[in-house]
Design a protein that fits this description.
Helix content is 5%, strand content 50%. It has a 4-stranded antiparallel sheet with strand order 1-58-57-56, with no helix packed on it. It starts with a helix and ends with a helix. It is mostly beta strands.
């Protein structure tokens, strides 16, 4: 289809993003449930998929065609778990109605109802020999049942909170259970005795799995991590981190080489069990992933989601050997390097990703922050990148190697914004500690700019490098001397938080945007001229009024002056500046409009020119000259190259 339509691509669209690799892993989506799908299982021969849902039903699907074969109805409440017997003749389901039900796979008829739990049953599993069924419940117990008679044989007591998952070891001699009490417990199947308690997670545990050789246990937790444990010793081997939401499901591949995990960040991750490295992120669900399972041959993964669907993924695609090309959470910021060759993107997954803007390929991942990254900035020559985080640090990285060069420590709260001076010798950072810090890029020494009474939200240098402007939740913009760090002026007029600030290209004006739904333009040049003539001691007496106040339809979170200076480029669209306030621009610059994104459209000036797919919800963007980079809620980063001169010509009305 792509090949058939290439001839239809307009000539002004010089580069389309490469997104096929993201699509190839998804085989099919199974739809039919009317509520969240909470669990999924392959039959032993992988010809069937069973799913359990909040709609109180179990559904059986044909793996090859995706066709719905049967719907099993008898539970009176949500079904949390599903399992096939080893020979595939029975299906067990666990429900909020406090029961476990056994179904005949061939006919779909109900065989037995196992009663004994006093509260919701969250998990169910068959022993490898099919003799036993284990169930886990909100009543804090694990129960063992005789498959033939349906009678309870043992109750395993030891957890102090709800037991959310249970699994047999491959030899059937041990049972592992996990609970909201943050522990994993290992039990003897024959005696029912407690053998070990594994402690290490900082949140409730949601899922547990044995490796195929039984030597390892994997656990998934609400603390956003997966942990690998040595079964024999109980020692923690490795922690797999990188999710931006609770990890709800986990499964080992049949050969034990891979772990699949599903999360509240809507993704399925595939991990290398030997190295602990993230090999692939499967993106496609629009809500939380509650269940994951491998097919018997390990070639496919099925996932169950709160979006009411089951998705079937190809676990053997060639791009498993590549580094994951998506973030595991929403992309919250993208930034083009000054030369347009690289894109930096940040997400709640604590990493910065660097991309080749020309090819769209991932170059490297910058790992080092211990909490979410909030902002980044490129050195003007593009050789370094600076990042700030909720971990209260400022980090400096080499863009060519990805190596961490320096960590600047000094803020006492999360750092929200960062920028380089035009000559790259200084870094300014803004923090929830109500300060702006001015760092020496080479030495790490710093000045603290104190004056805001609430946290600054944005900080920017003038293009001549002489001034720093900071916007704050105290409803003001402050102007600072970049050389000394002294406060020169406070711009007062907004009636709510100031969210963004920008200098004009000639450094003579400032634009500020506020939650009061206004943008104000300020004449900085006039103030500086008066200040130099009258002396710095009477700066406070010089009133600086806004040149223009513009009402907006909503709160702006970003703004900058357009190349031609005729309008402001904002996340809500272009805002025209009064003609009397526009400086002189070259004819070439004045003829071209900026690129921006809103409501799934790429705009050229005020004209929508390219519709983005509705499957990918845009979250943020950055435009520079003929390039635009876009971050999406599903973790993708895409870049487009648009020949604005050709587009400008194409949009001109015929004469």
């Amino acid at each position: 289809m792509r090949k058939d339509n290439l001839a239809k691509v307009p000539k002004w669209l010089r580069k389309l993003p490469q997104i096929e690799d993201t699509w190839t892993s998804l085989i099919q989506t199974l739809t039919g449930h009317s509520g969240s799908v909470l669990a999924v299982a392959f039959s032993p021969n992988s010809t069937w998929i069973a799913s359990a849902s909040r709609d109180n039903t179990v559904k059986l699907w044909d793996t090859a065609t995706g066709g719905l074969k049967k719907t099993l109805v008898d539970h009176s409440d949500s079904i949390f778990a599903i399992a096939f017997s080893p020979d595939g003749t029975w299906i067990a389901s666990a429900s909020r109605d406090n029961t476990v039900k056994l179904w005949d796979t061939a006919t779909g008829r109900l065989g037995k109802t196992l009663t004994g739990h006093s509260d919701s049953v969250f998990a169910v599993v068959f022993s490898p020999n099919g003799i036993w069924i284990a169930s886990a419940s909100r009543d804090n117990t694990v129960k063992l049942w005789d498959t033939t008679t349906g009678s309870p044989k043992k109750t395993l007591i030891g957890h102090s909170c709800s037991v959310l998952a249970v699994v047999f070891s491959p030899d059937g001699n041990q049972i592992a259970s996990v609970s909201e009490d943050n522990t994993i417990k290992l039990w003897d199947t024959i005696t029912g005795g407690l053998k070990k308690t594994f402690v290490g997670h900082s949140g409730s545990l949601a899922a547990v799995a044995f490796s195929s050789d039984g030597k390892r246990i994997a656990s998934a937790s609400y603390d956003n991590t997966v942990k690998l444990w040595d079964t024999a010793t109980g020692n923690l081997e490795r922690t797999l981190a990188g999710y931006s939401g609770s990890v709800m499901a986990i499964a080992f591949s049949p050969d034990g080489k891979w772990i699949a995990s599903g999360s509240r960040d809507n993704t399925v991750n595939l991990w290398d069990t030997t190295t602990g490295g993230l090999k692939k992120t499967f993106v496609g669900h629009s809500s939380w992933v509650f269940g994951v399972v491998f097919s018997l041959d390990g070639r496919q993964i099925a996932s169950a989601s709160d979006d009411n669907t089951i998705k079937l993924w190809d676990a053997m695609t060639d791009d498993l050997e590549k580094t994951s090309a998506v973030h595991s959470g929403w992309v919250v910021a993208v930034l083009l390097s000054p030369d347009g060759k690289r894109i930096a993107s940040v997400s709640g997954d604590r990493n910065i990703k660097l991309w080749d803007a020309a090819t769209g390929s991932l170059e490297r991942i910058l790992v080092g922050h211990s909490d979410s990254v909030t902002a980044t900035a490129f050195l003007p020559d593009g050789t370094w990148i600076v990042s700030v985080s909720r971990d209260k640090t400022v980090k400096l990285w080499d863009t060519a190697t990805g190596n961490l060069k320096k960590t600047f420590v000094g803020h006492s709260e999360s750092v929200l914004a960062v920028t380089f001076s035009p000559d790259g010798k200084q870094i300014a950072s803004a923090s929830l500690d109500d300060t702006v810090k001015l760092w020496d890029t080479m030495t790490g020494g710093h000045k603290t700019l104190v004056g805001h009474s609430s946290p600054p939200t944005a900080v920017v240098f003038s293009l001549d490098g002489r001034l720093i402007a900071s916007a704050s939740r105290d409803n003001t913009v402050k102007l600072w001397d970049a050389a000394t760090g002294r406060l020169k002026k406070t711009l007062v007029g907004h009636s709510d938080w100031v969210m963004a600030v920008a200098f004009s290209p000639d450094s003579k004006r400032i634009a500020s945007a506020s939650r009061d739904h206004t943008v104000r333009l300020w004449d900085v040049a006039k103030f500086l001229k008066a200040s130099s003539m009258l002396g710095g001691t009477i700066n406070s007496r010089i009133k600086l009024h806004a040149l223009q106040e513009i009402k907006t339809l909503g709160t702006l979170s970003s703004l900058k002056f357009s190349e031609n200076g005729r309008y402001l480029v904002t996340d809500l669209g272009p805002i025209k500046i009064e003609s009397t306030l526009i400086g002189t621009q070259s004819a070439d610059c004045a003829s071209l409009e900026d690129l921006w994104v809103q409501n799934q459209w790429i705009y050229y000036g005020a004209v929508p020119v390219f519709r983005l797919t509705l499957d990918f919800e845009s979250r943020c963007y950055d435009g520079r000259d003929d390039q635009i980079a876009i971050g999406f809620t599903n973790g993708l980063v895409l870049s487009f190259a648009i020949d604005r001169r050709s587009l400008n010509f194409a949009l001109k009305p015929p004469t």
